[in-house]
Amino acid sequence: MLPEVAAVPYRIVAMETHDIRFPTSRERAGSDAMNPDPDYSASYVVLRTDDGAEGHGFAFTIGRGNDVQTAAIRALEPYVLGRDAEDMGARYREMIGDSQLRWLGPEKGVMHMAVGAVVNALWDLKARRAGLPLWLLLAEMSPEQLVELLDLRYLSDALTRQDALDILRAAEPGRADRIERLRRHGYPAYATSPGWLGYSDDKLRRLCAQALADGFPMIKLKVGADLGDDRRRLRIAREVCGPGFPIAIDANQRWDVGAAIAWVRELAEFDPWWVEEPTSPDDVLGHAEIARAIAPIRVATGEHVQNRVIFKQMLRAGALGVLQLDAARVGGVNENLAILLLAAKHGVPVCPHAGGVGLCELVQHLAMFDFVAVSGSTENRMIEYVEHLHEHFVDPVVIKNGAYAAPGAPGFSAAMRPESIAQYTWRTT
Ligand SMILES: [Mg+2]
Asked: What's the CA-to-centroid distance between 386 and ligand 1, angstroms?
């Protein structure tokens, strides 16, 4: 049974879902060592209130997963109908606390991503009603209000409520200056678009040069399918970018632990900035072993890390040099706040995963909030940038001089254009 809700200024009266799929596999955009033919897709949810407001959210999948993902989102309808987005700590905890749905995880996989989509839609609604972009809504909350949003269960050996308050209070001085800096300079971005595995050498060379010309401070290449190809492609990228320019590599979970260590050693002469997803995202000890073996090259992971508890273990085990949270993998904004605080407590920089459908649009808000109110720094921090599908969004990201411009429109930048929803809604015949 859901708890009764006190009198609220408005109520959510409708939840729509849309199964949206873009045929990206035709161009091999998004291709990597594990995912040769992704059709970038969104299981999309719209919440409507009795006073005419809306909240938009989505889970990102790469195609047929949408069948399952959209059904999972629908299962959460009882948690939003008749309710509001005012007490977001309560809304989030109710959803992850449904014991029958929780059995499917707990707090992992399709059901947890569905919670994330709905929680994020509620945040979009709340920020629109406040007339603020989400990053600023969060950045103007007090440390006490922010801590009330968290679920710190299973984290107390690494992050207590007092730790969270201490981190947030320590970052309070200077918040206003950092908001101004974001509005003036944006938040650094790096470019993944040059390095898809399915691209030709000529296209790689051209896109590396373009990324440099556009002012990106880092690029990333997909690796892990063929060592000879990886060495050739990294040599090309290094030639174009020059010595010392940060070039990260991403194996998308391709290797076992021993293979990861051996393969990365073969690529070490090209000076990779980090090695991303070297092995299974569930293998905490494996990541730690790889991190020790390939140091000082850092291990980065997070886009498939299923919840805050795995991140806690990764951080405590020294398995991560870079934490790549994802806006639509875990239980939405609330859980990502806990993950940002865990990273800050362990002194690990957060470089969010983006790309997909709308992940750049979402995650910029979390990184900007982190800069203003948690870490207070952009040193060694960048948000991934992938150059596709932004045209389908009402409030698409804006990249200037290799940085994300701070969003100004109210909300979470999650809303897709109605004509795109109509055109790319998946229809089985
Ligand atoms: Mg990746």
From this structure: 11
Quote the tokens at residue 240.
């174009």
Give pLDDT, residue 6. Answer: 59
Average pLDDT taken over every residue of the chain: 95
User: Catalytic residue at 346?
Assistant: no
* Token output for 146: 């922010």
pLDDT digits (tens, 9 = 90+) for 175-194: 999 999 999 999 999 999 88
The rounded distance, in Å, linking the Cα atoms of 100 and 102 is 5
**Does 428 score more than 80 pLDDT?**
no
The predicted model gives 400-416 an average pLDDT of 98
Sign of torsion over alpha carbons 58, 336, 91, 50: negative
- 418: which residues sit within 8 A by CB, 6+ positions away? none
Instruction: State whether residue 144 is helix, strand or coil.
Output: helix
167: closest CA among 327, 379, 377? 377
pLDDT band, residue 84 (cuts 50/70/90): very high
What distance in angstroms lies between residue 170's CA and the mean position of ligand 1's atoms? 32
Length of the chain, please? 429
CA distance linking residue 102 with residue 112, whole number of Å: 8
Write down the catalytic residue from 56, 112, 222, 287: 222
Please give the distance, rounded to the nearest whole angstrom, from the Cα atom of residue 39 to the centre of ligand 1.
16
Tokens linked to 241: 């970018």
Bridge-based pairing state of the strands 54-61 and 41-49: antiparallel
Query: Which residue ranges form the domains of the chain, and what is each CATH number?
Result: 12-131 (3.30.390.10), 168-424 (3.20.20.120)
